[in-house]
Amino acid sequence: DTTAPRYVTPELAELVGYFMGDGSLHAKELRFCVSPQDADLAEHLVMLGSKLFSLRPRVTRKRSYIEVRFTSVRLVMWWEACGFAKLSASAEHSGKGWLARIPDAILHTNNPAVYGAFVRGLFEADGTVSSGYPSFTTATESLARDVQSLLLALGFITTLDIQPPGAGGWGSRTKYRVRLLNVRTAARFASEIGFASARKRALCEGIEHQQSERYDHVPVTRRMIDRLAPENDRLRKVLLLEHKRGAVSRRIATALLEHAPDTELAHMLDFFYDEVGEVDLSEEDLTLDLSVPDNVTYVANGFVSHNTISFMLDCDTTGVEPDIALVKYKKLVGGGMLKIVNQTVPAALRRLGYGETAIADIVAYIDANDTIEGAPHLRDDDIPVFDCAFTSQHGSRSITWQGHLRMMAAVQPFISGAISKTVNVPNDATAEDIERAYIDGWKLGLKAVAIYRDGSKRSQPLATSIDKTTGQRVQVVERPLRRRLPSERHALTHRFEVSGHEGYITVGLYEDGTPGEIFLKMAKEGSTVSGLMDSFATAISLALQYGVPLPALIDKFSHTRFEPQGFTKNPEIPIAKSVMDYIFRWLASRFLSIEERDRLGIIRRDEDGEPVDVSPVRAQLSVIQPTGAAAPGAFVNQADAPTCSDCGSLMVRNGACYKCFNCGATSGCS
């Protein structure tokens, strides 16, 4: 009976990789084609199929190839269900009718052994070895680039050679060749991944190329050259010459390591260095936002969440993320605080040439002051080496937010997704700085930018001082509180007219009857007057909701004079000096006390519309009567004074007439 593995194993991945190169799926069987020169490879495929499916295939030698056939309908159905079949081609595709790919089941394993086995099968089917360089050729660009990414995940650097149609006997199709970078990388490929056939294994053995180490340059510093190369050494002259040109070739750097063994140089040679040739902006794509509770470390798809990896690994920092500070404080979820001190400062000082006594004094200074600035024995030129993301509690230096963006831009071309790194900005950063950071990140080709402003939260899990971390000794800053009106509220609407100009006032009320908003409607919608009145009403509404007293607004805007002004149809306010004067004196007539209304010149009327006698006012303004009976024709000054027809102010008797002290107008006399 046919069996099938429950999980993706390296053996299954190798068979799938070979299928994507020289395999085909039929209604009842799975077929593989093998070169007649690689009979041992056919036996290897037979062994894999027997082990995985308990199925003995049929091996047939054709005229130009060897065919290995696994006949089983159940196997074909299982192969398709697992997603191992090739994809059907689009209408624009020419050539073979099926497109090879890396199945999702292979990628989701996140297993280097499975990745390597898939690559081995793929290179065995459609790969070759030329001058010691393994390469893989395909007519599908997406497959070529995916194979490059898979090899890069395994630590193998490759180049992609694109040959136009007609080159190399491929007809009208473009050819994409993925090639190992140099012999050194090829040697690693042969030992760690290798080939199943003896013929290709032999092509990878014993190949040496003196120029292969020239393909990248190592950033050897002048200080390292002075330390490792003697003054009278010939190698020093070559090093200085290459350093002057910009960088030292890997071959010369390797020779320096053999001449003067050094841990730092050996570590640098473990990496491949290349220049960023171009940054292209890709199309917009949807991203997923993963939200979690406060201060937790979580693992998703094999990746530890950002800002927690270094703590799990007991590292000061990882990747391109700089340290928060040389001395930092971490708030613990269960309560309490943890002080974390950077452990790499002594090693860095040794590389900079400091002695043990100076190192001990500098570290002691950091422990006491939470900063390296001002430490004894420390040279000014070396201080920037220790700059961190945030300014220390007693320091003044930090990495600018522009530095974070430029570091991410240097790394982004080598990463398919966004970078899990925070762009730290200082506490005094403005909104314009944040806007500029996002725009600069977009211009630099970054796929995502995450910004955090120091101290923007009441307490934060990691900070440079106890105050920011634990929330102790927090300065309380009073801020205005907006009192919003309920969704459903009572309102009062009043129609008014000033010198023939009509309008409407609508006042929204709180539950206690006090005004909380006003709406002003004048002229046609969309006109300048209508827009100005709407804007003014919005400003007054916000002022009321933020606690500005209504009497203060009325005192400020009542009796303001501008056109239109004149008579109204409101008996309490017969004349208005302006629309604003009418609006706020009307508000006073509805929401202020009687004393305030009298002070603002609002006329009291009885039910019949007659003016109400205000005895306290008349008593204050009455003329002192002579002793004895009242003289005939005596009058009370201003008790019957009308309002000015020009400005609306109360007039004062002037002989037989009345005079306005506000504007100087009279009622007809001199």
What is the number of E strands?
26
- Average predicted confidence as pLDDT: 79
Envelope shape: elongated
Biggest sheet strand line-up = 1-2-4-3
CATH topology of the largest domain: Endonuclease I-creI
Strand proportion, as a percent range, falls in 15-25%
This entry's quaternary arrangement is: single chain
What count of domains describes the coordinates? 5
- Which CATH architecture of the largest domain? Roll
Commentary on this structure:
With 670 residues, this protein is an alpha+beta fold. The chain has five domains: 10-210, Endonuclease I-creI (Roll), CATH 3.10.28; 216-268, no CATH class; 314-470, no CATH class; 491-612, no CATH class; 634-670, no CATH class. The chain has 23 helices and 26 strands. A four-stranded antiparallel beta sheet has the order 1-2-4-3. Strand 25 (652-654) and strand 26 (657-659) form a beta hairpin. It is elongated and about 135 Å long. The chain starts with 9 loop residues before the first helix and ends in an 11-residue tail after the last strand. The model is unreliable at 209-214, 289-307, 470-477 and 615-637 (pLDDT under 50).
